[in-house]
Amino acid sequence: MTSQTNTPLLHRSSSVQLRAVQLRRGRRVMTSSGCPPPLEIVEAPSDMLSARGSVRIPWRIYRSQLPSITNSVLSRTLVKGVVGQRLHPFSIRLRLSYDCFRYSIPSPSKMPEQKEKVELELDLYTLPSEVRGMTQLDRDAFTKTITVPALKVKNEVINKLIKSLKNILLQRPGLKRIIEDPTEENCKFVLLDPYKMSSADSFQEADRVALKQFNVSSEIHKYNLNLTYENFKTEEILRAVLPEGQDVTSGFSRIGHIAHMNLRDHQLPYRYLIGQVIMDKNPGVTSVVNKTTTIENTYRNFQMEVLAGEDNMVTQVKENNNNYKFDFSKVYWNPRLSAEHGRIVGLLKPGDVFFDVFAGVGPFAVPAAKKNCTVFANDLNPESYKWLVHNCSLNKVDKKVHTFNQDGRDFILGPVREELTKVLVKDDKNSVHIVMNLPALAMEFLDAFKGLLKDQPPSKSILPTVHCYSFSKDRDPSKDVKERAENFLGTSLEGCCCSVHPVRNVAPNKEMMCLSFQIPAGVLYRDQSEEQDNPGEPLAKRARTDEAFSADGGF
Questions:
Q1: 236 in helix, strand or coil?
Q2: CA-to-CA separations, 512 to 75, 361, 432, 470, 518, in angstroms, rounded
Q3: Each residue's pLDDT tens digit, 335-363
Q4: Enclosing H/E stretch for 43
């Protein structure tokens, strides 16, 4: 084994491009901190330049030297910042910290050995070729016998020894690592990781000390292990089934007991098998669905097909310590917006007035009410309105939330105008926030604020802060959403506490952004009768065409 030294593997602030996908909870999004969440590395450069500038290290060998990346996971602690936009759905360019990489460079003499270990890794858990192209799941076909290293250990010291050897034990789903020895009743076999252990020489010094302490021989035995369907990972099964070279989708959104997938066209012939595997491998999932259409109607829901399990779409989820119940087939819910919900609520103070123009089932309204804000929540979808009311009661804030079932424009021109007038009369010092979380359409409702308080005496004491969400495919999405908002408002937002927050990457070259600004007094108190009619006036929500919605289903 190669010893570790303090030689850095990369230059300070080295930049490296990786092909990656986010782990199960999130799918390639940006967190509120601006850093990417944990990423699973699916491809990396074939070589990397060492700090010495002379030795090139193959990525697989390089990865094996970093315990923190042994499981193909690049943790956020290793990411110092993003130094470029994603180049395509699975690409991201990262700037890696000098301090994160202080591991030795394998000597050339060790490289062939490492290469053999990589080839062993690729071959050891490769499933039988007979499963390729399977469309109906046959669990019995996923069996394989492999040979793994093992230690023979006396029964009385097993529990103490495995604590010392936990880093080299065999790790497989649903697999027992301690096996009965048929030849000796007072001994058992302890199965070891074949990637790390090939002979007695593979033990680290700490492992040797533990073996000596418990009087256990370092002799490596070969054990024939029978692997079944339960012992293979989701990715391994799907990669063996789908045509060779095609992308494997094992990620999904978890909504209570429902696993929501977005399968690609080439995966559809295998969709029922994929659904069954996802349900088998994820405890608590009792229904797997696949979206069959984009969000193409006013109510922001979509058609879906049940791939496996029960046809029960009424589910309950917990987000930021709040509970929400709804019919997933009739309302919109996206678990990837949890951090954004928390960010906006974090801006509120007790006593603030909070308007949610497109409230859905209440992910902004409920926590805002729990923060002792006065909340006015609206949604046009009757199903969303029903579950909004239910969730307010479920979280015991129904007395603090005023609910409405109106079109967004009617809500702004009605309840929002009335309550803003009352706030002005009170001359309250509390802030007013208006959230417009409908990124495909929200910009088109900004013109409703023109002259909203034209009958009131102009005042700058209370200027509501709007948080308006929008999609952007522009190379500079922050500039794009700001300019479009200014066009709808008919004025500049300079000096209006304007800021733009990136929410998440929705699709290739498509970002979801949140524009926050104070409504200029000149807009809020403007008399519209003095202006000429604008023939290009934005259309109301109901008139929006399908083209406004993204291919991945909205948010």
A1: helix
A2: 24, 20, 24, 6, 20
A3: 999 999 999 999 999 999 999 999 999 99
A4: strand 39-43
